[in-house]
Amino acid sequence: MPGALLETLSGANLAQRPVWLMRQAGRYLPEYRALRADKGGFLELVYDSEAATEVTLQPIRRFGFDGAILFSDILIVPYAMGQNLEFLAGEGPRMSPRLLDTTLDALSAVPQRLDAIYATVAGVRAALGPDTTLLGFAGSPWTIATYMVAGEGSRDQHDTRAMAYRDPGAFQAIIDAIVSITINYLSGQIKAGAEAVQLFDSWAGSLAPREFERWVIAPNARIVAALAERHPGVAVIGFPKGAGEKLPAYARETGVQAIGIDETIDPAWAHATLPEGLPVQGNLDPLLLLAGGDALDHGARAVLNAFADRPHVFNLGHGIGQFTPIAHVERLLSVVREWRPG
Ligand code: CP3
Q: Is residue 23 annotated as part of the catalytic site, yes or no?
């Protein structure tokens, strides 16, 4: 028997909803902070496969989530494409040289930078029980490109959007290069033991409709199709954060097996508009989990009720915040586990 998460991703509408939380391994957990301090930094943790395996398992031991998500980062892909990567304390990621200042040809790929990640996947799979699903992931090409071009996170992805308008040919080449490594990378994770994968498109919301078609939908559709050919039956969860009214087109045209939705989406609208039977993942506001109390219980039940008539994986609309009290996570889990379709 596959676990509840995997069953839901393949279309089963279970009475008890599977649940995991984006960024469930991370700074809100004291055991994570201790191990990270011990290793000296985030990348040091990611590249120590034994430690990364341990971090992936920490929230599973504590809370018994239905899914474990590989502990790594979406920016490992540009790092393997040859950019330097650093995480500066309090400032976030920095990459160099940025593609605003250089071209793709100037980078030389370092594919060995992916090997430690595969080792982590294999280590986690070996340690997990059969009911806990192991999720691999990658950033989707548009979001990865925004970091590669600007060399850091940016408020509205201004430089990358401008480049895509100014020189669509050059930008297409960047997207194509990311598509190709991402297919191999996710395929490598699946071979190492990932049972489903998620494509994080954190900045999908910044694009105008035609650009969304070209830079979000089309590249993701190519990744989904290539993985379906290499690994039939392995689900891809697409998470186009901020996509709003473009979600139904994303769902239909990418061919993803499940769709993650953020907290700005009205669940009733999503249920009414998304393709019938398509599994949905989401979408409690992470700030409601931070706040706790009755509002948390009601908010969680409202999400559960809205998706009662389709396969639903309970999750947040975005990653869990670092100041979230552990007691609120425990409370949320008891609400989700006690809920039954009315
Ligand atoms: O969900 C999970 O638990 C799996 C691991 C994971 C991380 N990042 C761990 C991490 C995943 C899936 C990501 C995705 C990711 N990384 C995204 C897409 C999702 C999103 O949040 O929008 C993006 C845009 C990144 C890039 C990135 N990595 C940023 C902007 C930061 C924040 C830098 C900071 O100082 O807060 C990171 C670092 C990062 N990735 C942390 C974790 C747990 C914090 C590292 C630490 O300081 O310990």
A: yes
